[in-house]
């Protein structure tokens, strides 16, 4: 009886429409991973376990009242930034980037923490300065964001840096960053593109150039884009059918269970599948934004909005890059790509969304 | 006081926030529409292009090279065959530092400096190939070592390949020839002939000899395998297979033991011998000495070996039987005598008194007979038996060069025989027209005189002389000389005979031919010039000796002038057929700087005829052909 009550209490903090949509996504993901891995059952099991862990994280976080989340913001952010500095000083170099930090037995990628910690920190800041919000506060928030973004960008991990910047920016945006500031920022950003170009690493420049003309270097930098475009394009309207994609199964497609898993999806399920996936993502985003609109506190609004839009950003950037619309950056397709950390971060985000939604009465008092 | 404004402020804030959420949602929908447009573009509009790209990505047509046909002699002894072995192959395009990779490999397997040189030579010669062999015939241990280290040797592969081998080594090397790696010129020629597709996956072709002239039959038809490959080019699954058709096997007229006996009979002499079956034109032995080992060429010959072969004053690479042009010398006399009979210039019984020389009317220049003082009274029979020069000087003068040219042309002099080998030389049978074309000088009567004894401009290849001799043996019918007797179809295994082809039929009245043949038989009897070489033969031999003055061996290749001067002994020439009453074999022999035909060339022809007609081997015994590597024991 007590257990049932406890379960009901736990469940009461979950948003069932959102959870249902996520379940559909996860089932799709299991099928996709089974195919992308070449029908590897061990791989599928690992993917399922990652999902269960991520789901557990979601349920736990959804049950944490927002004040506790607020309290976590500063320590999490500070730890994250300290770890990033640690990475810069002592990190392991993998594939030419310094992203990993050895902590005794395990290696961690602190930039992942910042995907949540940075917006949380900004939301915390705005929450405590809600009454006296001035332009200066946006500046301070921007600075709080710029520190981890700069540290991550320098690793170099431009993709993650952009994502952290985006989730932070969404907080600024929902916190009411004046339009004139926003527009002038966009103008300034556009104007500084040529200067920014010089600060890009050669490989980053190459990726952008490659996008413009992938055939120029078909076995080098253009390889990923060409092969993934071939995979998606050859899927046609209705796809080659589940387990019948040839590109990925024959290893033409690199990273075909992680960052490029969408190519397998597009090849096997075609345009029809892609439209379904887009609609599914859009439904999740819509539900997230509905929660955002109805959120009762600034903190809740900021976190729900930022997490939802970050989720959208992951999906858009990943599908854009795999289909040859955007330069190649290492961003997984949310809930579809193989990889525990990314999945946990996404579900943790939705956990926060559910928490702020279900705890609104409590926080209002 | 503040409260209402605060509430209002709160409301505007909420409205502003809602606006922003709507904008964000619109932004998301817009960008998703962009994705949708992209998906529509590549999955619907460009679908066919991407689909084709995907298919070509995964489906590869792998050529399956056919097994090259086997070449064997008339008794089924294999002269050229294939064996399977492992090679170490490098793909230069995938290797950054070739030298470093080869150094690394040399720690795993033996790589000699000759291997390196050969590899570098191939690298510089052929840019059309993606892989080049560094080492061939790897041992199992070596294969295992490479396999274990393959992960750190990109661009290095071990392949199982068929290799060509010539079990007889140097024996019959010119005739069989060899295969070698295709070079750019070969590729161009194949492309021109529309044959290049049939050579996908093959990198060798026949360069010389039968290997070259029967390339089309020997090669076979390349098959193909349609395979699904992954990105690394590794085959995942076979989709379809068109099996290759093996090349045809060739059965030669050649008797490899006879060939070996003939080669050994040359001893250290240079020269050539052609023995053929007068009835069919089938080549029984085809010798050019010295020879070479064709096996050296199969994997690509290294520079040192090549230079020593190519620059040797003995010219082992030249096929003297096919391309060596020598003056016929006195071996032309039987043919001249026939011409004399044909034109009615001589009756067999007409005699001359031979003072030991001939002079043109109104000239004091003496064309000397080989025998000082002359042969006395000489009729046609005696003129051939003792090889009287004066008789033929006079006959030639009476005949004139153009009639001589016209008649002798029928025997194949001065033109290619049409043997089934490439690169044959036509020799030279002079005429006024020829001289007018090639020189500003007019034809001098004295040139006719010496042409009558096979000197002067006259040149013939050993093959031509053998064909002409066979015509005598065959009652005037010349047969096209032919190496290959039958072709065994690579697909069905059916044996298809290549029918003997008559070249010309020379109308020789039997009585006239009998005069000549009888005289040639007596050449081999006591008193004849070939009596020593023919002594004790239990069958009748018809023969003629010759001695060709060396004025430099006329070949298309350069010849070391100093060497010729140092060795300006006469060439010995010998023609024969036997048994004279029912000929089964006709032979022509040239021995360079051998001196007199009867003593140097005769015994070689005798050894050949003895084995062919009697199965008798010369002493000391000849070892079986497979182990012959150039041991010379037999001479006179």
Q: How does this model look, in words?
A:
The complex is a heterodimer of chains A (365) and B (636). In chain A, helix 5 (110-128) packs parallel to helix 14, helix 11 (223-235) crosses helix 12 (261-294) and helix 12 runs parallel beside helix 14. By secondary structure, chain A is mostly helical. In chain A, a hairpin with a 2-residue loop joins strand 1 and strand 2 (97-103). Chain A has helices spanning 2-12, 16-36, 41-62, 66-90, 110-128, 135-153, 158-174, 179-191, 193-199, 202-212, 223-235, 261-294, 298-322, 340-358, 360-364, and strands at 92-94, 97-103, 106-108. Chain A contains 15 helices and 3 strands. Chain A has a domain at 72-295 and 304-334. Helix content of chain A is 72%, strand content 4%. A 3-stranded antiparallel β-sheet of chain A has the order 1-2-3, with helices on one face. Chain B is of the alpha+beta class and 636 residues long. Chain B has 3 domains: 2-45; 61-249, Penicillin-binding protein 2a (Domain 2) (Alpha-Beta Complex); 256-627, DD-peptidase/beta-lactamase superfamily (Beta-lactamase, 3-Layer(aba) Sandwich). In chain B, 38% of the residues lie in helices and 19% in strands. Chain B contains 24 helices and 23 strands. Chain B is elongated and about 150 Å long. Chain B starts with a helix and ends in a 22-residue tail after the last helix. Mean pLDDT of chain B is 84; it is low at 1-8, 552-566 and 621-636.
SSE inventory with pairings:
The complex is a heterodimer of chains A (365) and B (636).
Chain A: H1 2-12, H2 16-36, H3 41-62, H4 66-90, E1 92-94, E2 97-103, E3 106-108, H5 110-128, H6 135-153, H7 158-174, H8 179-191, H9 193-199, H10 202-212, H11 223-235, H12 261-294, H13 298-322, H14 340-358, H15 360-364
Antiparallel strand pairs in A: 1-2, 2-3
Chain B: H1 2-45, H2 47-58, E1 59-64, E2 71-72, E3 78-90, H3 98-106, H4 113-125, E4 132-135, H5 140-148, E5 156-165, H6 173-176, E6 178-181, H7 184-192, E7 204-208, H8 209-213, H9 215-219, E8 223-229, E9 235-242, E10 249-252, H10 256-265, E11 271-276, E12 283-289, H11 295-298, H12 303-310, H13 320-323, H14 333-342, E13 352-354, E14 357-358, E15 367-368, E16 376-378, H15 380-385, H16 389-399, H17 401-409, H18 432-438, H19 445-451, H20 462-473, E17 477-479, E18 484-488, E19 495-497, E20 502-505, H21 510-523, H22 531-534, E21 542-548, H23 561-566, E22 571-578, E23 585-591, H24 597-614
Parallel strand pairs in B: 2-10
Antiparallel strand pairs in B: 1-8, 2-3, 3-4, 3-5, 6-7, 8-9, 10-18, 11-12, 11-23, 13-16, 14-15, 17-20, 18-19, 21-22, 22-23
Helix pairs in contact in B: 10-24, 14-16, 14-21, 16-19
């Amino acid at each position: 009886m007590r257990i049932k009550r406890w379960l009901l209490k736990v469940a009461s903090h979950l948003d069932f429409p959102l959870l249902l949509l996520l379940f559909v996504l996860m089932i799709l993901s299991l099928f996709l991973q089974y195919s992308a891995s070449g029908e590897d059952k061990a791989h599928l099991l690992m993917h399922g376990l990652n999902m269960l862990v991520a789901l557990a994280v979601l349920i736990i976080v959804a049950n944490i009242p927002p004040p506790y989340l607020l309290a976590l913001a500063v320590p999490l952010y500070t730890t994250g930034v300290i770890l990033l500095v640690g990475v810069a000083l002592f990190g392991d170099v993998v594939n030419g980037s310094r992203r990993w930090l050895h902590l005794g037995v395990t290696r961690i990628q602190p930039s992942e923490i910042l995907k949540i910690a940075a917006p949380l920190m900004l939301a915390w800041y705005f929450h405590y300065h809600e009454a006296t919000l001035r332009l200066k506060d946006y500046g301070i928030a921007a600075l709080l964001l710029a520190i981890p973004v700069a540290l991550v960008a320098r690793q170099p991990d431009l993709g993650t840096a952009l994502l952290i910047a985006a989730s932070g920016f969404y907080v600024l945006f929902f916190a009411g960053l004046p339009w004139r500031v926003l527009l002038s920022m966009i103008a300034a950003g556009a104007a500084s593109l040529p200067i920014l170009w010089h600060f890009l690493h050669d490989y980053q420049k190459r990726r952008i150039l490659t996008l413009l003309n992938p055939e120029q270097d078909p076995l080098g930098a253009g390889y990923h884009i060409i092969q993934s475009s071939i995979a998606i394009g050859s899927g046609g309207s209705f796809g080659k059918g589940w387990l019948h994609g040839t590109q990925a199964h024959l290893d033409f497609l690199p990273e075909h269970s992680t960052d490029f898993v969408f190519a397998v999806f597009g090849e096997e399920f075609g345009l029809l599948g892609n439209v379904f996936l887009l609609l599914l993502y859009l439904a999740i985003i819509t539900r997230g934004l509905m929660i955002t609109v109805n959120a009762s506190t600034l903190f809740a609004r900021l976190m729900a909005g930022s997490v939802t839009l970050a989720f959208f950003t992951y999906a858009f950037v990943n599908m854009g890059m795999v289909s040859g619309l955007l330069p190649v950056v290492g961003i997984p397709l949310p809930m579809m790509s193989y990889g525990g950390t990314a999945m946990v971060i996404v579900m943790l985000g939705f956990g926060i969304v559910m928490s702020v939604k279900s705890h609104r009465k409590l926080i209002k008092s | 006081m503040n409260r209402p404004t605060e509430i209002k402020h709160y409301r505007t804030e909420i409205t502003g926030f809602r606006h922003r959420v709507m904008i964000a949602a619109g932004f998301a929908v817009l960008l998703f529409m962009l994705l949708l447009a992209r998906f529509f573009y590549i999955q619907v509009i460009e679908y066919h292009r991407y689909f084709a790209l995907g298919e070509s990505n995964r489906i590869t047509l792998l050529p399956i090279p056919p097994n090259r046909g086997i070449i064997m002699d008339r008794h089924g002894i294999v002269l050229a065959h294939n064996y399977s072995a492992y090679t170490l192959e490098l793909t230069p395009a995938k290797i950054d530092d070739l030298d470093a990779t080869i150094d690394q490999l040399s720690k795993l397997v033996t790589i000699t400096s000759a291997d390196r040189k050969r590899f570098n030579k191939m690298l510089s010669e052929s840019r059309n190939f993606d892989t080049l062999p560094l080492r061939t015939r790897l041992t199992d241990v070596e294969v295992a070592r490479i396999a274990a280290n393959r992960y750190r040797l990109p661009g290095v592969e071990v392949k199982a390949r068929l290799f060509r081998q010539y079990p007889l080594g140097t024996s019959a090397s010119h005739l069989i020839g060899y295969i070698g790696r295709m070079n750019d010129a070969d590729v161009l020629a194949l492309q021109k002939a529309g044959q290049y597709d049939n050579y996908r996956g093959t990198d060798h072709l026949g360069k010389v000899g039968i290997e070259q002239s029967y390339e089309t039959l020997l090669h076979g038809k390349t098959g193909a395998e349609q395979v699904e490959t992954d990105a690394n080019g590794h085959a995942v699954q076979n989709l379809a297979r068109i099996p290759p058709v093996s090349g045809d096997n060739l059965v030669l007229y050649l008797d490899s033991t006879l060939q070996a006996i003939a080669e050994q009979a040359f001893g250290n002499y240079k020269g050539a011998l052609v023995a053929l079956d007068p009835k069919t034109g089938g080549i029984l032995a085809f010798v050019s000495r010295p020879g070479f080992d064709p096996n050296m060429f199969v994997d690509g010959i290294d520079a040192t070996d090549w230079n020593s072969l190519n620059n040797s004053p003995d010219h082992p690479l030249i096929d003297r039987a096919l391309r060596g042009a020598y003056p016929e010398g006195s071996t032309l006399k039987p043919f001249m005598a026939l011409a004399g009979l044909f034109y009615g210039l001589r009756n067999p019984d007409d005699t001359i008194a031979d003072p030991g020389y001939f002079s043109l009317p109104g000239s004091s220049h003496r064309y000397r007979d080989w025998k000082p003082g002359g042969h006395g009274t000489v009729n046609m029979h005696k003129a051939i038996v003792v090889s009287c020069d004066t008789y033929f000087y006079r006959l030639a003068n009476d005949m004139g060069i153009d009639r001589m040219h016209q008649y002798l042309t029928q025997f194949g002099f001065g033109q290619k025989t049409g043997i089934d080998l490439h690169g044959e030389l036509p020799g030279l049978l002079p005429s006024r027209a020829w001289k007018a074309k090639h020189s500003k000088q007019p034809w001098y009567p004295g040139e006719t005189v010496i042409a009558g004894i096979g000197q002067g401009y006259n040149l013939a290849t050993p093959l031509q002389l053998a064909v002409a001799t066979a015509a005598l043996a065959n009652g005037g019918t010349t047969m096209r000389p032919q190496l290959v007797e039958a072709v065994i179809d690579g697909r069905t295994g059916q044996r298809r005979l290549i029918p003997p082809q008559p070249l010309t039929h020379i109308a020789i009245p039997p009585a006239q031919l009998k005069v000549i043949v009888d005289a040639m038989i007596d050449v081999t009897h006591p008193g004849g010039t070939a009596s020593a070489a023919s002594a004790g033969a239990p069958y009748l031999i018809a023969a003629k000796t010759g001695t060709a003055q060396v004025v430099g061996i006329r070949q298309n290749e350069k010849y070391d002038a100093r060497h010729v001067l140092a060795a300006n002994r006469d060439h010995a020439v010998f023609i024969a057929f036997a048994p004279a009453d029912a000929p089964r074999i006709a032979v022509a022999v040239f021995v360079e700087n051998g001196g007199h035909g009867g003593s140097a060339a005769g015994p070689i022809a005798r050894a050949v005829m003895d084995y062919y007609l009697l199965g008798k081997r010369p002493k000391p015994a000849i070892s079986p052909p497979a182990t012959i590597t150039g041991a010379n024991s037999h001479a006179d």
